[in-house]
Please model this.
Amino acid sequence: MSSSVLFDAPGPKARARNRAYAVVGSVVLAGIVAFVVYRLAVKGQLDGAMWDIFNYAGVRNSIVKGIVSTLEAFVMAGVLSLLLAVLLAVARLSDHKPVSWAAGGVIELFRAVPLLITIYVLWVGFFTSEPLWAVVIGLTLYNGAVQAEVLRAGIAAVPTGQSEAAYALGMSKTQVMTTVLIPQAVRSMLPTIVSQLVVTLKDTSLGFVITYEELLYAGRQMASTILVDGENPYVPVVLVFGAIYVAMCLALSALANWIERRGRRAKTGIQVTEAQQATPDMGGGPAT
Model:
């Protein structure tokens, strides 16, 4: 029997009780799943005809169009939000107090305002005929503010000795920020940056509120307009479209992990020349 610093190892009675809890919990969970499946089967949501709708060319084209629109908004918002994050993080760390205060105000404002409200205001006020830009700018403002705080935390985590050494070499503050601090901050905070990019990808689904024809909008239109034996195929559409979102998020995470592995293998820094080995003088005196 072993113990931990945080808790004592369970004894025989505790282990038996835990096993009983596990069995009861598994039985209850299996019962809930069985009940849900039964209700869906009664409603006809699991019939083959419900799933046969994905064999139609029009349905597949609608799905492809939704994926393309989602990725278009995500790529634009992802790139712009990262650029905005760098600007806001650098401005937040500025020695000029008005610049730092202004950047802090922008960050706190767009982190506090719900993203859906930002997108809706942009659509109603400026981009009524171009919902794509309302989605992109809304995502950029919100995620740029969040990513700015991530970068600022990463920059603050870099040991101060590195920036002091760079200043001692005569580098300007801009050079120190762009060549010393930001690259290390990005590398150390890459998992958090990727997590926020995944949030950006999922938040593109808010575009359906302003009739932007992304993936969720396509799924909603499909589930509400298609009838199979008098029933709308809600469950098949939710499962299929949910699987597409999961696949895109996993692909994004895999790409980020690949970039991180390549960054770790990359040869960076100044190459140190090997010292030449001195040949011992066996003659006992200077050569003539």
Summary: The radius of gyration is 29 Å. The first helix runs from residue 12 to 42. The mean pLDDT is 82. The chain has eleven helices and no strands.
